[in-house]
Amino acid sequence: MQFEYRYRVDADLRSLERHNSWWFRESETPFDEWLVSVKNDPVWRVVRDKIPVEFGVSPELA
Fold first, then answer.
1. Which of 8, 17, 3, 16 is CA-nearest to residue 50?
2. How far apart are CA 6 and CA 55, in angstroms?
3. Is 70 exceeded by the pLDDT of residue 20?
4. What is the pLDDT of residue 61?
5. What secondary structure does DSSP assign to the chain, as a single string?
6. What pairs with residue 56 in β-bridges?
7. I want to staple 5 with a disulfide (CB 3.0 to 4.6 A). Which of 25, 38, 49, 52 is the partner?
8. Where on the tree of life does the source sit, at the highest rank (predicted)?
9. Is 40 a residue whose pLDDT tops 60?
10. Which residues lie below 8 Å from residue 34, measured CB to CB, with a gap of 6+?
């Protein structure tokens, strides 16, 4: 499953670098370690006080 929060773009969001992070069972990185890295991503400090304009859920791509 893929989950997406969508926000109105503003100066705070423009200041962030583009970043994607995916985890797969076959990955050499343990899930817990990957999750910590996602939680520490700077994007969360920027969006913490913002209200999403949309939330999307889509099936895993085959």
1. 8
2. 6
3. yes
4. 67
5. -EEEEE----HHHHTSPP------TT-SS-HHHHHHHHHT-THHHHHTTPPPSEEEEEPPP-
6. 4
7. 52
8. Bacteria
9. yes
10. 21, 23, 27
Phi and psi (nearest 5°) for 4? -130, 125
* Cα 35 from Cα 21, distance rounded (Å): 10
One-letter identity of residue 37: S
**33: domain range?**
2-58
Residue 62: per-residue pLDDT: 52
Instruction: Give the number of C-alpha atoms closer than 13 A to the C-alpha of residue 55, restricted to the C-beta side.
Output: 3
